[in-house]
């Protein structure tokens, strides 16, 4: 039977394009669009996947700082996730800020029902919470989320304070030492960002308990960003959602982050926001053809500001 002779429903099924990979993100909603769910949705879309955003908290912030938050009731968080999970198949999780220890517990319960779906857990700095809230949140995250985590992502200092709170050596903890500590709680890998190196460089290293696996070294920017960690972890989740190997996904996610920061913009009076759609922008007047890949262009003098408050390009 030809397509023309097929029933309308059959024709529709034959013509319908396959859906992209779907990534569920548990994260806070915040109005700057720099981080949280807005950052996750933009990043996952830029990577070619479809985001399923679940609101865990509402942050009151601008591009410079966080002022307050209102955690979402844990039952409501669960209902958001369950309603979609009964309808759509997902192939990766992204966990960001979960609002409270109760929120961590609620999300962890949902995650536990899908043990074969890879989980990227991003741990942001939460020093703006009071000490008791911080401690209860981190204890819950350590006990309930880490055992289910494929890759734990975080800044070097944040992960050191979280995984090795009694660290008092004269040298910084290595990525392997952080990975060993994470493995004791069940996490398979750590992706440690912002490791300070000499000559204005920073390192970003994927490691497990056996040692470093992959990484990328960047030259330090002269500006501050908001949303970099959410961008990196969401990009990684999107890549894992299509079956990429962890080390390959980390390398591509770091490259994506590098170029997003390189094209970053300052929409207000605070920090610079990553441009997750750098690849969709037309070439500038001084460019011909495709946009340059980070590392291929000569770095301009840092003393000379570029138009539109964009940070200077880096070479690595």
What is the distance, rounded to the nearest whole angstrom, between the alpha carbons of the first and last residues? 58 Å
Rg: 20 Å
Q: How much strand?
A: 15-25%
Q: How many E-type strands?
A: 9
* Element order: H for helix, E for strand: HEHEEHEHEHEHHEEEHH
- Class from helix and strand fractions: alpha/beta
Helix fraction, binned, reads 25-40%
If you had to describe this structure to a student in words, what would you say it looks like?
The relative contact order is 0.13. Helix 5 links the parallel strand 5 (119-122) and strand 6. It contains 9 helices and 9 strands. Mean pLDDT is 87; it is low at 285-316. It has helices spanning 8-15, 36-46, 74-85, 101-112, 131-145, 156-163, 175-183, 228-240, 246-262, and strands at 22-29, 50-61, 66-71, 92-95, 119-122, 151-155, 189-197, 201-208, 211-219. The protein is globular. The chain is of the alpha/beta class and 316 residues long. The protein has a 9-stranded mixed β-sheet with strand order 3-2-1-4-5-6-7-8-9, sandwiched between helices.
Question: Secondary-structure blueprint of this entry?
Answer:
Blueprint: H1 8-15, E1 22-29, H2 36-46, E2 50-61, E3 66-71, H3 74-85, E4 92-95, H4 101-112, E5 119-122, H5 131-145, E6 151-155, H6 156-163, H7 175-183, E7 189-197, E8 201-208, E9 211-219, H8 228-240, H9 246-262
Parallel strand pairs: 1-2, 1-4, 4-5, 5-6, 6-7
Antiparallel strand pairs: 2-3, 7-8, 8-9
């Amino acid at each position: 039977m030809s397509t023309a002779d097929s029933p309308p429903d059959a024709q529709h099924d034959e013509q319908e394009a396959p859906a992209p990979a779907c990534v569920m993100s548990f994260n806070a909603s915040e109005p700057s669009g720099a981080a949280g769910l807005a950052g996750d949705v933009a990043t996952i879309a830029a990577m070619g996947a479809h985001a399923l955003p679940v609101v865990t908290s509402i942050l009151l912030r601008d591009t410079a700082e966080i002022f307050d938050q209102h955690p979402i009731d844990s039952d409501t968080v669960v209902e958001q996730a369950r309603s979609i999970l009964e309808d759509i198949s997902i192939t990766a999780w992204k966990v960001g800020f979960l609002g409270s220890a109760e929120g961590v517990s609620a999300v962890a319960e949902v995650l536990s029902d899908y043990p074969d779906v890879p989980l990227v857990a991003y741990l942001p700095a939460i020093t703006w919470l009071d000490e008791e809230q911080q401690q209860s949140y981190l204890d819950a995250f350590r006990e309930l989320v880490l055992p289910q985590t494929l890759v734990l992502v975080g800044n070097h200092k944040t992960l050191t304070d979280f995984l090795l709170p009694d660290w008092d050596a004269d040298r910084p903890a290595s990525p392997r030492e952080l990975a060993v500590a994470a493995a004791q709680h069940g996490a398979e890998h750590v992706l440690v960002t912002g490791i300070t190196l000499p000559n204005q460089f920073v390192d970003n290293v994927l490691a497990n308990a056996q040692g470093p696996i992959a990484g990328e070294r960047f030259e330090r920017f002269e500006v501050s960003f908001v949303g970099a960690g959410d961008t990196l972890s969401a990009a990684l989740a999107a890549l894992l959602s299509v079956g990429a190997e962890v080390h390959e996904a980390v390398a591509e996610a770091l490259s994506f982050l590098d170029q997003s920061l390189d094209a970053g913009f300052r929409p207000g009076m605070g920090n610079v926001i990553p441009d997750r759609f750098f690849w969709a922008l037309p070439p500038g007047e001084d460019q011909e053809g495709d946009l340059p890949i980070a590392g291929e262009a000569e770095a301009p003098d840092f003393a000379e500001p570029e138009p539109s408050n964009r940070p200077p390009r880096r070479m690595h």
